[in-house]
Fold this protein.
Amino acid sequence: MTEAQTSPASTARPPVVTIVGAGLAGTLMAILLARRDVPVLLLERRPDPRIDATTAGRSINLALADRGIAALKAAGVFAAIEPLLIAMPGRMLHDAAGATQFLAYGQDERESIYSVSRSALNCTLLDELSRLPNAVLGFGQECVGVDFGHRLVRMRDAASGNVYRLPLERVIAADGAGSPCRHAMAAAYAIDVKEDLLAHGYKELTLPADASGNHQFDPHALHIWPRGNFMLIALPNTDGTFTVTLFLPHEGPVSFANLGEERPLIAFFEEHFADALELMPDLAEEFAAHPTGRMGTVYCSQWSADGRLVLLGDAAHAIVPFHGQGMNCAFEDCAILDELLAVLPWPEACDAYASRRRPDTDAIAKMALENYREMRDTVRDPKFQLQKALSLELERRFPGRFIPRYSMVMFHHEIPYSVALERGSTQGAILDELTRGATDLSTIDYTRARALIEARLPLIA
Ligand SMILES: Cc1cc2nc3c(=O)[nH]c(=O)nc-3n(C[C@H](O)[C@H](O)[C@H](O)COP(=O)(O)OP(=O)(O)OC[C@H]3O[C@@H](n4cnc5c(N)ncnc54)[C@H](O)[C@@H]3O)c2cc1C
């Protein structure tokens, strides 16, 4: 392996910002910078997903919400993304007998989350970036080391095997949850990094379209089969399919470890997800072929190395996927870092970004973990459903004071995650108090509700 002094893609004018990782956050960050006439070099270890379809992978989708949309709008690319979206204004619960119940997420259809294909989103963002004159993209370019002492980033070009160096100056590490840049930073600086892996894993499967190419369940819902310690979910794709994800413990009596063989797998689906099973003819084949994914939360005490390298998105703060916020939060990071870089010198902007963002990313990490129990278990509880309905009713009666926590996170980008967590906890106590002994909304004491809300929840600015 040889070491060259410069990158094959080093045609951008200095001072160049180098971004490692052309996933969702890295690409959006590059767009934001390039639109401000900042020259950007975006380097990705994989081949270009727009050319090499295999790297785009299976049809895997994500829930896009208001925070992500706000950042896409700030970057001027939402119009290109909008046609890819399918609105999901609520959850569709499936019980073991196949009966369904729709629970709206918000006040009306405008309060919706949106299913979007990860690869279509990534490819569209790359297309948008490619149109900008200040951006240089390099695929098959892997970061293989960061030398903080000599202030160098080592990159390897996959085609030639050559290793070349870039200056460790204005580098944004958007290299995902397993971030090699974060690992290098942790080794060089005395920083605490905690990677809390969940005891549960996930497996992505497909529910095909019908013979006419239509969805076999209502596409305008996020489908959930909550079963206590595990669950199945399904999000619609624009081609009539659903991407189905099974979340289950890795080990234990009901776990991935016990579903290796076809017979127990089918028996398990027959018992718990019969209505989905009958529409999934390739279940056993896909189950065997697809990997079982791991999920976790990354806590990293420092995101910036002297303003030379700064962590972005999952690299800084990966979270579990149960609030559908990892990408949304990463997009919000991009918009905030860009805002700060526009007005502050680099090191100060990086420090300001880290200190402004951390309380919020800590808050969404906590809420994402809490949401797992809600999705797989408590969502079935009549008391939970009463409290959800009451939350929406209180929002109608006391606008600006009471906004359900889920709505603050998903539909109100102007409310920071940390405020949603704090107000959500006050609201939770109020809901507990108001629903004690109540059976439905008509039995709620709204005079008491007004007194509690006005005393404990100041108007949101
Ligand atoms: C099962 C599951 C479901 C999810 N659902 C949702 C959802 O519904 N809504 C939501 O908002 N979020 C969701 N997320 C979270 C979301 O996927 C992530 O938060 C998001 O992808 C983070 O973007 P990123 O750019 O930081 O990282 P990534 O998207 O992981 O991108 C990192 C990029 O860096 C590249 N890279 C890595 N190492 C190197 C290297 N050494 N050199 C060069 N390049 C490198 C990778 O190839 C990749 O392209 C989900 C996550 C999972 C696991």
Residues 20-26, 43-46, 62-63, 142-143, 174-176, 180, 202, 293, 295, 313-315, 321, 324-328, 330 surround flavin-adenine dinucleotide (CB under 6 Å). The radius of gyration is 23 Å.
